[in-house]
């Protein structure tokens, strides 16, 4: 159940018998021809689809993250690492204060990974707290499914192109874009990154048939649900 579709009375009643919740982390950044909100859309939806049969609350995705390397692409927004770490910690503290103890973070943006130590510090400071950090798209079964469908897949390629992330009326290239040389991205500023990757796709075809991405989505939802419903001991 999405928090946006719940009231506080219902959450208080829920907390009488369960203390799990899901916090999606997203980003607002370029995704070539797809929505600038891809990471937030996907993290919140995979979380909601996974939690729905369990009745576990899913909070709105944190829509801003760490993406300084995309700041040459208009519409991208980044936070400083210290700011982001403080925001995530404040959210976790709020969840703990209101009764949540087991929190699954569903992360939709690789650039957010440096904040993971915050979850460990938070668990250490709060008795009984548990927090799992889940990069949904590169979890073992999900990534294996990506590789099975097409190993040439990356940021803003087909593996992020779903009906809920594509934009109506926008034509997509039909070619398969070669992988960008990742080793050359590490020492570039934002302008250099844009010059290197062009439209923003890191490599791969821009769209696959929905039957294939539906299969990928099913695996991702099931793998996320297993973490939420698994042994927290």
Short description:
This protein has 233 residues and is an alpha/beta fold. 37% of the residues lie in helices and 9% in strands.
Strand content: 5-15%
Instruction: Work out the helicity level.
Output: 25-40%
Number of helices: 7
Low-confidence stretches: none
Largest sheet: 3 strands, parallel
Tell me the number of strands: 5
What order do the strands of the largest sheet run in, or round the barrel if closed? 1-2-3
Give keywords.
37% helix; single chain; 233 residues; Rossmann fold; alpha/beta; 3-stranded parallel sheet
Question: Topology, please?
Answer:
Blueprint: H1 8-14, E1 20-25, H2 38-51, H3 81-97, E2 102-107, H4 116-125, E3 130-135, H5 140-149, E4 176-177, H6 190-197, E5 204-205, H7 210-229
Parallel strand pairs: 1-2, 2-3
Antiparallel strand pairs: 4-5
């Amino acid at each position: 159940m999405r928090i946006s579709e719940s009231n506080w009375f219902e959450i208080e009643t829920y907390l009488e018998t369960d203390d799990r919740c899901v916090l999606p982390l997203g980003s607002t950044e370029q995704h070539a021809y797809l929505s600038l909100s891809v990471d937030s859309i996907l993290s919140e939806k995979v979380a909601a689809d996974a939690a729905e049969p369990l009745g576990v609350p899913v909070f709105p995705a944190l829509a801003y993250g760490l993406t300084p390397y995309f700041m040459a692409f208009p519409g991208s927004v980044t936070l400083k690492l210290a700011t982001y770490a403080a925001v995530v910690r404040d959210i976790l503290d709020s969840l703990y204060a209101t009764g949540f103890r087991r929190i699954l973070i569903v992360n939709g943006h690789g650039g957010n990974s440096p904040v993971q130590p915050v979850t460990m510090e938070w668990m250490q400071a709060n008795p009984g707290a548990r927090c799992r950090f889940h990069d949904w798209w590169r979890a073992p079964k999900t990534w294996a499914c990506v590789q099975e469908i097409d190993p040439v897949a990356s940021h803003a390629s087909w593996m992020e192109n779903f009906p809920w992330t594509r934009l109506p009326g926008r034509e997509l290239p039909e070619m398969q874009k070669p992988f960008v040389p990742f080793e050359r991205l590490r020492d570039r500023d934002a302008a250099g990154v844009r010059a290197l990757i062009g439209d923003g796709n890191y490599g791969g075809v821009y769209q696959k048939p929905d039957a294939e991405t539906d299969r990928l989505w099913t695996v991702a939802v099931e793998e996320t649900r297993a973490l939420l419903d698994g042994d927290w001991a």
